[in-house]
Design a protein that fits this description.
Blueprint (H helix, E strand, L loop, with lengths): L1 E5 L2 E5 L6 E2 L8 H19 L5 E2 L8 E3 L5 E3 L6 E2 L2 E2 L25 H15 L29 H10 L11 H8 L10 E3 L21 E3 L35
Antiparallel strand pairs: 1-2, 3-5, 4-7, 5-6, 7-8, 9-10
Helix pairs in contact: 1-2, 1-4, 2-3
């Protein structure tokens, strides 16, 4: 934010952020985790749209601050690459093992930071510490992260999104943060039951007064490990006799 010289040296003034890193023990709801993912991606969209673009190259739980209001801050740009130039002049390898994709060593792209963000989110949603990420690495390929078995209640679409984020080959990932963000926004994190009716429209025609008509409807839930909950109600019609949603004069619903 500001800098000045003194007789003893050079001073740099930076903003103090009252927030904890994602590496510190803390519990987030599934929707908060998605909110964090969205906000980090929005930061990456901003960085990638700059001229020249910026690649952080060291995204990990320790470099992400989140406060009590779920405001998100990406910090430590010491390893960042601006255009074709490094922020730091050293040629030493940059990044944190377990959070770097194969191409980062030679030719990082906009998809490079997505891999690191994907691994970070996997740590967050599985509860695996960043220092223990090797526990999820495939024995034959350390760039492959195996985590699906730890998330039985997480939606398959969100798991698929995470798996795309951490594909070892950058061509199999999202091309940039903007595409990853667009793909994430409509997704549910937790598995939500999906109601499937055998029939969506029923027509009844009586041949005589007082005749009782009956139809059976099969209801299925296509999402495993989820439970359908709810109740039947009869929608009001101006020609119906007085009734409540649960008690109608000539329409009834029975479960079998």
């Amino acid at each position: 934010m500001h800098s000045f010289e003194t007789s003893d040296g050079f001073c740099l003034v930076q903003e103090y952020i009252h927030a904890s890193t994602l590496a510190e023990p803390r519990s987030f709801s599934p929707e908060e985790i998605k909110q964090i993912a969205v906000k980090i991606l929005e930061i990456l969209v901003y960085l990638q749209n700059r001229m020249p673009s910026v690649i952080h190259r060291d995204i990990k739980p320790e470099n992400i601050l989140v406060d009590e209001q779920i405001n998100v801050y990406l910090i430590d740009f010491g390893f960042a690459r601006i255009g074709s130039h490094d922020v730091a002049g050293s040629s030493v390898f940059k990044g944190t093992p377990g959070f770097i994709p194969p191409e980062q060593m030679f030719k990082p792209t906009n998809a490079t930071d997505l891999y690191a963000l994907g691994v970070t989110l996997i740590c967050l949603i599985t509860g695996v510490k960043s220092t223990k990420i090797d526990q999820l690495q495939d024995a034959d390929d350390p760039y492959v992260i195996n985590f699906r078995h730890l998330l039985p209640q997480v939606s398959l679409r969100f798991i698929g999104w995470l798996e795309k984020m951490v594909q070892p080959k950058q061509k199999d990932r999202f091309t940039n943060a903007e595409l990853a963000l667009e793909s994430l926004k409509p997704l549910d994190v937790i598995r939500v039951p999906r109601v499937n009716f055998s029939e969506t429209v029923l027509e009844f025609k009586a041949n005589r007064l007082g005749e009782k008509l009956r139809r059976d409807i099969t209801i299925e839930n296509s999402i495993p490990d989820t439970l359908l909950e709810g109740k039947w109600e009869v929608a009001p019609h101006p020609q119906d006799p007085p009734h409540t949603p649960d008690n109608h004069a000539w329409i009834s619903v029975k479960l079998s």
